[in-house]
Amino acid sequence: MMEHRELIRQLEEVSIFECLSEKELNELVASSQLMTFKKDDVIIFESQEGNSVYVILEGMVKISRTNEEYKEVILAILGEKEFFGEMSVLDGATRSADAVALTRVRVLRIDGKVFLDFIEKYPKFALSLLRELVSRLRKTDSQIKSISLDDAVGKVASVIVRLAHDVGRVRKGRVEIENFASQQEIANYAATSRETISRVLTMFEREGLIERDVNKIIINNFEEFKQKFGE
């Protein structure tokens, strides 16, 4: 019973579900499945049939594709209270990317038919979903602009800011990003080399903009960092 109440509380904090009542959330949970994945487990494969939506309750998930040179291109890194898999459910096409667990991940798997039924039954839910999808389009536009126009420092800064917004924790003006992605993964996200990532992160650390631990990065003054790099 306690786990069920905690699950409902977590879903209430997911942007697209904030508009739903506790009764409606209970209805959703009753038709869904809790699943756990280990680090590096593939949750969904690109090009497979998509028949479910996943809500992240714990951990971080990498959304990526493989380009024609068989190099990984990271599209997004998602954290708790975010969701993925909705595109295939909405348009009936195959999955457009892989989803891989960056840490231990716990998700709620929502059957695609149930998800579509909720869109039809609850207009407020459909509107919340639409707003979230528009927000993601804006983020994608920003990412494309960064990759196309920024120099190496700007690209790395942009990725750090996006990770801070998506998976960071704010503490007294500082932002902590735990289980920080590897330098190669950041390079794949920023469309640059691992050597460039290492050089820029070292520069940021030397200038006191960030601190690094084994699996954590801390932005000492997040607002100043964003202003410095025009984010």
TrEMBL record:
Lineage: Bacteria, Pseudomonadati, Chlorobiota, Chlorobiia, Chlorobiales
Domain Cyclic nucleotide-binding: 16-136
Claim: Transcription is one of the keywords in the record: yes
Protein's organism: Candidatus Thermochlorobacter aerophilus
Residue ranges of domain HTH crp-type in the record: 150-223
GO cellular component: cytosol
Chloroplast recorded as keyword: no
A molecular-function term among this protein's GO annotations: DNA-binding transcription factor activity
Keyword terms, alphabetized: DNA-binding, Transcription, Transcription regulation
Name this polypeptide is given: Crp/Fnr family transcriptional regulator
Origin superkingdom: Bacteria
